[in-house]
Amino acid sequence: MTNPVPRSLLYCSALHPEQYAKSALTDVMVIDLEDGVPHAQKSQARACVEQFYRSHVPQRTALRINPLRDNEGLLDLLLVQSLEQRPEFIVMAMTEAAAEVDVVRANLCRDAGSPKVLVTVETPACMRDIYEIAAKADGLIFGSADYAASLGVPIGGWSNILHARGNIVAAASAAGIPAFDTAYFHLDDENGLMKECQETLELGFSGKTAIHPRQITTINAVFTPSVAEYKQALAVVQAAQHSGDKITRLKNLMIGPPFVKQARKLIQRAQELGR
To answer: Does residue 206 contact residue 178 with C-beta atoms inside 8 Å?
Structure first.
């Protein structure tokens, strides 16, 4: 059975293998060779990753590699090539062209299959070619900190980067792949995390990245359809079927094809997550 699209992706520095155990809290643990590792310790981090994948890894993992325009990124690719057991996902950082995705796929292709490729959208240059990049990828991740820094606007805002979120979701939808929202940087603001999760869910994101394990419960809860939502979706589909797929009324709601399409997607997502 294919693993469901993740709701939560928790970043963990590749220098700290003991933190990998926290992956039980999250749908996917993202082992980070990029920002989570100082430049002087990149080789040490790759050794930690190699050792980790030599053991049995029961949890779903992703490996965030350095940009391909950096020699560290090329060394990261060589590391992944050498691994017998590999991560489910490769997370690309600072991607700016669709050809970069081709390079990763070409270098990681095996008869037994290759990791899925998630592209982190972090720069205006990436946004410029977002539809071409999405067409090559298996998912998009919004990296808002670098994106905001590129624009020279405050990091962690909402309205100042709302345009980016909308473009990412639209490109992902056009390509038929999921989009994952950026991390929430205020660790002690549970209400703020909840609000941002709900707002990004409404925009069309499938999940959200996290920088601390305490954020996972909230993220998973918001991005899992509730029992009430699931029952409402079933009712919409049943009403449409009973009407012969004509526009009909369900209590105080007029429902037509777009409502049924949305309801079917929610039902599918709920069932994927075991609702």
So the answer is: yes
Quick one: how far is CA 208 from the chain centroid?
6
CA atoms within 13 A on the CB side of 10: 23
Which of these, 95, 139, 101, 99, lies nearest to 121 by C-alpha position? Answer: 95
Q: Is 14 left (phi over 0), alpha (psi -120 to 50) or beta?
A: alpha
Sign of torsion, CA 55 58 64 68? positive
Q: Report if pTM > 0.85.
A: yes
pLDDT at 55: 83
The helix/strand count (H/E) of the chain reads as 11, 10
What's the longest Cα–Cα distance across the chain? 66
End-to-end Cα distance, the chain: 16
Radius of gyration over every alpha carbon of the chain, rounded to an integer in angstroms: 20
Which CATH topology does 8-222 take? TIM Barrel (3.20.20)
The domain locations on the chain are 8-222, 227-272
Q: What is the pLDDT of residues 137-169, one digit of tens each?
A: 999 999 999 999 999 999 999 999 999 999 999
Average pLDDT, the chain: 92
Please state the rounded mean pLDDT for residues 10-35.
86
d(Cα 268, Cα 263) in Å, to the nearest integer?
9
Judge whether residue 1 has pLDDT over 50: no
